[in-house]
Amino acid sequence: MMIETLERSISQGIPAPAAQPLNLRDAALEPIRSKVERGERLTIEDGRVLFATRDIHSVLAMADGVRRRLHGDVAYYNINRHLNYSNVCALSCKFCDFYAKVGESKAYTRDVEYIRGEAIKAVESGATEMHIVGGLHPQLPFSYYTDMLRSIRTVAPGLHLKAFTAVEIVHLAKIAKVYKGASGSDDSAITARREAIRYVLSELKDAGLGSLPGGGAEVFDDRVHDQAFKGKIRSDVWLTVHDVAHELGLNSNATMLYGHIESRDDRLVHLDMLRRAQDHSLTRLGYTPSADGSVTLTKPGTELPLQVASKRPKDAAPAGYFQTLIPLPFFPDGSELEKLAGPSGLENYRTLAVARLMLDNFPHIKAFWIMQTLPLAQVMLQSGADDLDGTVVWYDITHVGGASTHQEVNVPVLHKAIREAGFKPVERDTLYRRVEREGKKWWIAGSR
Ligand code: SF4
């Protein structure tokens, strides 16, 4: 009988206990706990305390409390397919073991026929999203990218196309020859840059682009950037791409690549820059900012952006926003930074929890299982994360510990992982709307 009960508990999920009163073992955390309970913005100094304390359990528990306030006992996943259309890249980032140069034996570029076939396979597998990214190909014309989206649209009109990092968007502006005069920091260059990015994003949106992924942000620090990611766009340009996307009504995500040559302070500055950008986007969406310009979502009873967006008048100006942060641990294997150790398991938990606590205006934090591994991602659901991402096929960009590039879990495995962590699995689409389905047929909850 006891075994039966245990089996039932495991298969149905053991409800994780609600946030308990915390017995802090480090008095320095006390003022932070008070702010977190009131939903107040933490300072960078608060972030330093969260990184420095030996009482890591309290840090994870506070992040868990915020996560439960925002999402209760729900944990999200999605059914998606990744497409890396080409690994040919004009850059050679030190941390990257994905890129190839034109003519190298491992170089590949998918043609439109291949991509259309992948879209058909995605639909046949019940996917709601296609996540499309690739290298900065020096020779493909801009029409390759718009044709790619249009051809997917024709065979898979219901598939959400989340495509092209900010780095790719700027590259496309260059190959579309609209980036002239857009490099530099004077006013005319800044204006030219916004216009060039707006042109590219508008054309892509017209061709079927649904949202932007969060890649290419790395860490927003010019020193680190120039040492490890030289040639890639810096933070100001990355943030401009996402701001223009939001202005056009496209939602986007953000990443933070950590555990390489950056410091913990660099991570905190990165998170602060992201939340200030989100302040701006959420104000555009309709939130009223505080006197200092901040908009927080973690005050008890605050509506999430998805709810606010759904109530906007149909003729309101477009307004997108950041949906989720995806903390990405650095894997040194195979890269030019191979001598580095990469982050430890504990550092992964702590960084994700600090991100949840600092990013008070990001609705979601993702434990990207393909990089964190599913066992670590399960614990992250109890440390601030509310989303695992999804089933993934052919994720070439990074593979953990030399694993095969063919990485996939099926829905029952994700359900089991989420239930074991004590949460209710909820399938979402790219925009975090709940999905209902009968087999491969799916629809947005409440839409019929
Ligand atoms: S990280 Fe991106 S931009 Fe850098 S080399 Fe790799 S594919 Fe190219």
Short description:
This protein has 448 residues and is of the alpha/beta class. It has helices at residues 2-12, 30-38, 44-52, 56-71, 112-124, 142-155, 166-175, 187-207, 222-228, 235-247, 264-285, 305-310, 345-358, 369-372, 374-380, 411-420, and strands at 74-84, 129-133, 160-163, 211-212, 251-258, 322-329, 364-365, 387-391, 424-427, 435-438, 441-444.
- CATH architecture tag: Alpha-Beta Barrel
Q: Write down the CATH topology.
A: TIM Barrel
Largest sheet: 5 strands, parallel
CATH class: Alpha Beta
In total, the number of strands is 11
Distance between the termini: 42 Å
Shape field:
globular
Class based on secondary structure composition and strand pairing: alpha/beta
Helical fraction: 40-55%
Number of helices: 16
Mean pLDDT: 90
Compute the CA-based radius of gyration.
21 Å
What is the strand content? 5-15%
Query: Would you identify the regions where 5 or more consecutive residues have pLDDT less than 50?
Result: 1-17, 399-405
Number of domains: 1
Instruction: Give the ligands present.
Output: iron/sulfur cluster
Features:
448 residues, 11 strands, five-stranded parallel sheet, 42% helix, disordered N terminus, binds iron/sulfur cluster, four-stranded parallel sheet, alpha/beta, TIM Barrel
Description:
- It is a single chain.
- This protein has 16 helices and 11 strands.
- By secondary structure, the protein is an alpha/beta fold.
- It has one domain: Alpha-Beta Barrel (TIM Barrel), CATH 3.20.20.70.
- The strands form 3 sheets. Strands 1, 2, 3, 8 and 9 form a 5-stranded parallel sheet that branches.
- Helix 6 links the parallel strand 2 and strand 3 (160-163).
- Helix 8 (187-207) packs across helix 10 and helix 10 runs parallel beside helix 11.
- The two termini are 42 Å apart.
- The site of iron/sulfur cluster has 11 residues, from loops.
- Iron/sulfur cluster binds next to loops.
